[in-house]
TrEMBL record:
Gene: asnB
Entries under PROSITE patterns matching the protein: GATASE_TYPE_2
Organism: Streptomyces lavendofoliae
Protein name in the entry: asparagine synthase (glutamine-hydrolyzing)
Catalytic activity: L-aspartate + L-glutamine + ATP + H2O = L-asparagine + L-glutamate + AMP + diphosphate + H(+)
NCBIfam families: asn_synth_AEB, trio_amidotrans
Length: 594
């Protein structure tokens, strides 16, 4: 787990190594254990290292395979790297390190861009063919590891975070109206390849991009489950599906234990993280470190679930750590969390993850997290509504149920120069759901949520907040084989028992019933949801700042309405509407975007 950066020139100029160094230094938190810069011909690469596998300097990056004439940088972890390494050794390859980075280089030498089909893990990597000047960029199937791009005439830059690209300079920081529409509609989800900045794009998940010496490129999407009932699963009943899911999750958790350092667990006390702890205990894991966070109550709303996390910690005798955050600490923690955001994120638990990651990073460098289970196994309360319509009506229903606000609201929120002439978010949903596969309405919704919303909201949130403290988070529910299995599972088994029915059945084989059958929990941060005093003061400060006035994103009358009653205005999803708009402005100011 690390941070990478670089520049490719398509003209006769040399890469700006100083800019690459600035980008690399901005990634220091993601990789506190090492720094490297490499430049040859039209390409320069930078890397910050977090030592997880092969702790020696032989695993340092950028890494060059002198025999193959390849140089690469890599962020992530290839969980099956030892198996791939054995296969490559049998094919005659020789290794100088025990790192998964070198496995990527050798695999590319053996299989070219098809190497990604051999990897199980989370990754973003860049490989340079030193002789041809061709550069290959790739991202893992579920987009767990980020890769941001900024292209101008004659040049392409890339980095693990958007702020790193900004540190390099020369980025068009004007706002993208389509991305802004998605931000306000889709709970801050901005789908790849867009970001809110017109000059920054994201390599989509499950994509390999081959960039030629002249700047032309081709993209290949190398993975996408069909979300249909597959013939090999015909005849399976509910018990068979329960066993298949439990076996696949057991394998996913076991894979994510590969490391040369200890691995802990973020334990919320919900079904998902509790299952991870239970399966690790089943594997014989002793003295497992677990971590939970809670917040002071505000507005009559509780902010912790320690009752359940303590229950699991006691049952499996973990080395448990608790963090209780008072409301006045939330306001002081906001700025650190927002500085860690590659893109603006409105979910309250972003602050929770940032604070928890600070605590966890003092104890371990790697944790497993339950992120993704609700999207993969239909755990949210709105999925029954999405499943209750005919397949053809699903795009319309999805917008009604999930979006924060309709397209018609944009004109009273945004200044005219930022408005789109069409429902950009609704169009995206319609086009995504029109793709082949996804035979039922629920299949279409889960495909969209798993491969778009999940990537550009919850997964990005966890990556940004944990890596800001040099902490690697692994997500077994996003094991691609488990996702493929869940995509083929009959919708009624996922919707059963109030959601995640098949996963709850699997959980009963390991966990106390009061954890499996508890009401669905969310991760509230009451101080933000109810605009506690210090948080509201920070919001007012940002919206009244000279930068905000000069930028003029939002209509003055709309802001005045929100500020007059900060806790009264809610989006259709129940989010605080003032927080939604203020967070964007605070993010722009934090990253000095004019």
């Amino acid at each position: 787990m690390c941070g990478l950066s670089g520049e490719i020139r398509f003209d006769d100029r040399r890469p700006d190594v100083a800019a690459v160094e600035r980008m690399t230094d901005r990634l220091a938190a993601r990789g506190p254990d090492g720094r490297g810069i490499w430049s040859q011909g039209p390409v320069a690469l930078g890397h910050r290292r977090l030592k997880i596998i092969d702790l020696s300097e032989r695993g340092a990056q950028p890494m060059t395979d002198t025999e193959a004439r390849l140089t690469g940088v890599f962020n992530g972890c290839i969980y099956n790297y030892q198996e791939v390494r054995d296969e490559l050794c049998a094919l005659g390859h020789r290794f100088f390190s025990t790192s998964d980075t070198e496995v990527i280089l050798k695999a590319y030498r053996q299989w070219g861009t098809d190497c990604v089909d051999h990897f199980m893990g989370m990754f973003a990597f860049v490989i340079v063919e030193n002789d041809t000047g061709r550069v290959v960029l790739a991202r893992d199937r579920l987009g767990i590891k980020p890769l941001y791009l900024s292209q101008t005439p004659g040049r392409l830059r890339f980095a693990s975070t958007l702020p790193a690209l900004l540190a390099g300079g020369g980025v068009d920081t004007s706002l993208d109206p389509v991305a802004l529409h998605q931000y306000l509609s889709w709970h801050a989800t901005v789908a790849a390849p867009r970001t809110v900045l017109a000059g920054v794009r994201k390599l989509p998940p499950a994509t390999v991009r081959v960039v030629e010496r002249d700047g032309s490129y081709t993209d290949r999407c190398y993975w996408q489950p069909s979300y249909t009932r597959r013939p090999e699963f015909a005849g399976m009943d509910a018990r068979d599906w329960r066993d298949a899911v439990l076996d696949a999750l057991r394998t996913a958790v076991r894979r994510r234990m590969v490391a040369d350092v200890p691995v802990g667990v973020l334990l919320s006390g919900g079904l998902d993280s509790s299952l991870i702890v239970g399966l690790l205990a089943e594997e014989g894991q002793k003295d497992l470190a677990t971590f939970s966070v809670g917040f002071e109550a505000e507005g009559g709303e509780e902010g912790d679930e320690f009752t359940y996390s303590d229950l699991i910690a006691r049952r499996y005798e973990t080395d448990h750590h608790q963090l209780m955050v008072p409301s006045d600490r939330v306001s002081t923690a906001l700025d650190g969390a927002i500085a860690a955001m590659s893109e603006p994120m409105i979910s309250h638990d972003v602050v929770a993850f940032h604070l928890l990651s600070e605590l966890v990073s003092k104890e371990v460098s790697v944790v497993q997290s339950g992120q993704g289970a609700d999207e993969v196994f239909a755990g949210y309360r709105w999925y029954p509504d999405l499943a209750a319509v005919e397949r053809e009506r699903e795009p319309e229903r999805y917008s009604e149920v999930y979006f924060d606000r309709p397209h018609s609201d944009m004109a009273r929120i945004l200044q005219p120069h930022l408005l789109t002439d069409h429902d950009a978010s609704g169009r995206f949903v319609r086009e995504h759901m029109a793709a082949p596969g996804a035979e039922t309405a629920l299949d279409a919704a889960l495909r969209l949520d798993t491969h778009v919303m999940l990537v550009d909201d919850p997964v990005k949130r966890v990556d940004n907040m944990t890596m800001d403290w040099g902490l690697e988070a692994r997500t077994p529910f996003l094991d691609h084989e488990l996702v493929e299995l869940a995509a083929a599972c009959p919708p009624e088994l996922k919707l059963a028992q109030g959601g995640k029915g098949v996963l709850k059945d699997a959980g009963r084989a390991l966990l106390p019933r009061e954890v499996v059958d508890r009401p669905k929990g969310y991760f509230p941060v009451p101080a933000i949801r109810h605009m506690a005093g210090p948080v509201l003061e920070r919001v007012r400060q940002a919206l009244n700042a000279p930068e905000a006035k000069a930028r003029g994103l939002f209509r003055e009358e709309y802001l005045a309405e929100l500020l007059a009653a900060p806790d009264d205005h809610r989006t259709k999803r129940g989010a605080n509407a003032l927080w939604h708009v203020a967070l964007l402005e605070i993010w722009l100011q934090t990253h000095r975007i004019s």
